[in-house]
Protein 1
Amino acid sequence: MTIALDHAPSVFAFSANEFPEINGREEEWRFTPIKRSAGLVSGEAKIAGDIQVSAAELGGAKFEIVAKSDQRKGFTDRVAAFGFEHTTQVASLTIPNNVEIAEPIQLDLRADGKTVAGQIDINIGHQARATVIMNYSGSGAFAGNVDINVGAGANLVVVSYQDWANDAVQLSHHRISLAKDASVKHVVVTLGGNLVRILPSVNYQASGGAAELIGLYFAAAGQHAEHRLFVDHSVDNCRSNVVYKGAVDGQGAHTVWIGDVLIRANAIGTDTYEINRNLILSDGGRADSVPNLEIETGEIIGAGHASTTGRFDDEQLFYLMSRGISEDEARKLVMRGFFEDLLTLINVPSINERVRAAIEDRIAGV
Amino acid sequence: MSVLEIKNLQVQVSTDEGPKDILRGVDLIVRAGETHALMGPNGSGKSTLAYAISGHPKYNIVGGSVTLDGQDVLEMSVDERARAGLFLAMQYPVEVPGVSVSNFLRTAITAVRGEAPNLRHWIKELKESMAALQIDPTFAERSVNEGFSGGERKRTEILQMELIKPKIAVLDETDSGLDVDALRVVSEGINRVQASGETGILLITHFTRILNYVKPDFVHVFHAGRIVREGGPELAVDIEENGYAQFVTA
């Protein structure tokens, strides 16, 4: 089996033309409703400008809009390259070395009904600590990327909250790079949007890196929420832990989770686990879940994956109802419970509060 | 005083080869304050009786009746049966990830009592009941049954019974998989409920071991989907000494 290796990128580029055109039959596009992408996949979209990014609660961090330069790795996805190509300026957030910022830094991102591109850079210096919340809201279509560079020994929590209006489109690559002993908790919450496709990837520059990738998604009727992860264990003694959970409810609700984890031959001492769970709440919804784990060395601490997709567990409902709890209330308990352990992992109070409220809203409509 | 009346109950399950008869006419009356031991070999249909009384959707009632204080139990949904006063302590209690024991119990108590319990009283009541069953207080915040040992699950079932105070409790092999200490703790819980005189207990078991701790008023021997012998506690002694074969061949 060389599935993950097949998924390992071979093209690195800054413009869409470097990649073949997308027809929708490619492995990495086969689940995506590319016709709903506002021309971002075909490349026919007219980009009106950059996504509007505003920052608040900066603490000791610096936020600025800077000139675009190619001093970064080329992109591995055609639409990601398209987004970069059409970006004019970069929204850059820098957390200096050794700085600890307790309060979450807020980045507010808006397309304002337009078709926009954009590049967001988050650089956290060595031994620094911070939490960054990116919040996407409103209407529009966005092709753009987030480059996250975590310095040696630094600790970053970064949350990407897709709270888009229901007609919005987003196609983004989140590229995480970890220096020696750096750790990141990357959280994706996708609740809004018509089509959201996010590709979080992790690269380890030196040993001791740790990545926790957490995702929570809930697709209602007509929504497509796709998350494709690629964790590239290319150096020794690094860790990764992936936990994604989602629900689908309603006609045409579709979620996709792809978890590619590659442990290269020299990545001895790797410890990795990935899990994806999906709850199907009604007929007409669909959840695809594909874990891919490729291991090229046996000298690892651990590697595993799990994936489950199903409806309500009848035995759970029977158990709860046998204690007098109505079927409706039992379903709500199970649904809340399904996401609750994810909130324990996310553990960012303002985000947990928002997610709980959003889930309550969704539960009320089920 | 409450009474559960089971008359000529016949139950089938669906299999790949078509419907299969499991219960072939069960007659049993359990009154509040009484303790009945229902004993029988594996595969005799004991657990089916427990699930059928509780309304598990897997079991099809094809004949007979079950009433609680004259009310038709078989017409009720699973949750209605529980609110009417029936309780089933399960042989294999189910994990409910992300739902804490305290949240689960508070929701169940609210449903059964018809109103939310006074918070201060409730916390005290829960603490005391957990302590009596030697359940670690931290279990209140753990997910229901998740990562619990067999003994911990069974103690949590009895905890639920003590808090819910049902009219009739069916205990499905609550003794299975318990070590001696856990068996004693669980039995003491059952005896407290028994001593209240307000709950009728139907204790389903394969072994006589638990009857050293919980004294039954009546013993019923179950075989091939029906009760084949009834008597007092002395019947359990007979089973202990001579096994089930004597009833099977009879």
Note: The helical segments of chain A are 3-7, 78-85, 314-321, 327-346, 349-365.
Protein 2
Amino acid sequence: MFGGFEVFKYVKLLIVCSFLLCLVSAPSWSKIRDGIPCSSCHTMHYSQNGGVLSSWGKSGPYKALVVNDCLGCHTGVNNGQNYTPYVYSTSEPLYGQTGTESNTNTLAGGNFFWVANGSDDKGHNVRPFPEDSVFGNTPPGGTALSSQLSCAGANGCHGDRSKQDEFEAIIGAHHADDTTIDGKTVGSSYRFLLGIVGYEDPNWEYQPDVSHHNQYKGYDRASETDVDKSTISYFCAECHGYFHNGSGQISDNSAGWGSPWLRHPTDYDMSNTGINSEYRDYPGNYAASGASGSNPYSVIAPVGSENVSAPKTNITFQKDAIVTCISCHRAHGSPYKHILRWDYYGWPEKTNTNGCNACHTSKD
Amino acid sequence: MDGQKKLIPMDAMPVTRQKTKFISVLMALFVFMYGWAVSFSWAGKYTDSAHGDKIFGVKRSALSAYGRGNCGHCHLQHGSIEGQAIGPNSQAIGPNSFGLFAPNYNTNVTESPYEASDNICFLCHGPSSYQSGGITNYDYSKTFGGSSFVTVNTIFDAFNLKNLYTNSSYHDLYDIYSFAKNQGWSFFKDKSNPCVACHNVHLAKLIKHNVQNAADYSAVSLPVSKNIGNRQEGHNTLWGDDTDERMSELYPSHYQAPFYYSSQSTYEPGGVSDYTGQKMPDYVTFCTACHNSTNEIYSTELGRYLRKIDWYTIMNDGDSAEVYSDKHGRNPASVIIYMKKPYVSTVGIGRDINFITSCTDCHEPHGSPNPFLLRSEVNGVIISQQINIDDNTIGYFCKACHKDDAALYGNSSLTNKWEGVHHIEYDAPYPRQHCKTCHDMGGGGMGGKPPIPCLKCHKHGYKDSLSGRICF
């Protein structure tokens, strides 16, 4: 039917098409998974049949030819099967007591629902949600932002903050090879937090258990000015500086580091505490589902580690019991004041659940 | 041999199966015991404490968002509240040591009177309390002795009685701090508060609401480690809450609890019917953790080191010792003592000699209108007279338990006269001659001689060389 030349021609065409497909479609090692059509996220003319699709954002056209802004794409209800992590839900998500129970549908960062609905101290006040009524645009522990917080960009968390615009700050990251999270580029940084490393749970901690969770990077530092710029706590400190590091800001110990603390330490390895200290009983009553053995990991009050190649199922107190900002707080929002993971303010009068006791095991 | 596992039918290895079953049972038992032990150790220590109590615990008026008992009433995790590091009265609230909302303790103040800001505890346990509704803390005499005499209403007041009473005394906080710091106790740091030498604020229970069960609701923790059986007591445990940490166990059948105020049938603490100390923490072991026969403890107020105390050794009057063992402790009286109820054989534990007393039977822990932290109510009797250290007015205190001449001879005009026990009664140590040897002026009739200051002989660890007797 075909001559040899024609066969060669078709093979050549197939190779070229495959190459093009590789270029334009999502490789399996990026955030955008195989099989997702470009049109799920992009539009060439911000127009379809002369109009704007109902699923698209209404403020377009958007940069990078995308169909919506950050929040627009990441709004929805998580069900454990969704490809896109939803960080904002238009109806109240299921958080339970700690956001980790089997009947919950929030992710590791929590959800912006509460800050969007009248509780400005229950989420990071990113646009378009209300500014913080107490702090305005000045992050506690840090200096004022030039404008309201955004998802990305110069006043954002994700992406390259040297870029003013949030699209430009994040551009290309979703298609980047993230098989190795090394923090060198936005795409290869933990959750696109430039410079930060960590293990990313593929399900973003939807109903996490002892084997399925993020592993946050921590650092067993030696002084209150000693920092590792790849830790999750250092990232928070880029805005909330004094809460993490600074001379005379964290420790009142005459040796320069250690108890008595001035502020709750982060990037502090509880392995430095005495063998009989209460901290060696981590996680107290707060072990993750599926836990076994000594000192199982807690997804309620997670601790960081220097090695983040895989999620820890158990703590060995060898640079893997590191307090982080994320040990107590959700990054996006929670139903609790100051984005805490549990109802700290209500404890013990109104609730028996207090993740503080995962570390402060004798204070329950 | 061929690299493959050889499969053996289960029923072909009965011994192995039994072993497996046995091991399984053992493992299950271990898991259960471990779980039980773990759950026992997580028995809610802080939430059982006075500060963590969800009904009576910490609740600062200014912090309505925080639940009662919440850590945030004392600790600011980020050294600020709502981003503010300045409090409502323009005082800096953070960051402070231990993340506290105010400076923990002012080491520049070496003696009373104190300001509330000198010690963070005073900010709540003081007259202008930050605590919603305030906190009332009476002294030991009223709280556990039932005294109708109110000397203080707060802990702060107890440490500041110098403002009200010339001869008052208090447990000097700087002295405690200095002593504790030099002991090398791991829990006590340079920036620690002297109160934590005696109290673990995360464990201390609501004893004032449970005065008749003072031991179960103990508010103190040993500053030193003490092994008892398989457990270790210390700063991280309460002292008195275990049954073998009671006065009744210190020297069994030798502790007689003093009367509750105005009662002849109920006893301390709190007016209980028990007189053996089953409800009373073993305050002897607690206090002698510091005030013992070896520690050198300096008193800023007295300008000298405190007398050492041996409450345990049994010795004879003729024995030599660097510190003579007190007869108010385990060391028995030599021959006879003349005591009032309940320290007579017809009442209580049924003995009239060889008692052991608790430090709190005589002393206040925080402050007193009297010298040496002597209580204002003792053995059911209020001490209304002013007590001085340089005369015999301390006798008014002693006669709450010991018989003065008025009690011995039924003559009220001989109140606080002590000729009987010293010169007249059986086993009296001093002959009625050479009066001037002891009495400065000498001469005179019965009770007419100038009294000798009690403290000349009756003090901790002292033996009178004239009589050759240990006389405290």
Note: The radius of gyration of chain B is 28 Å.
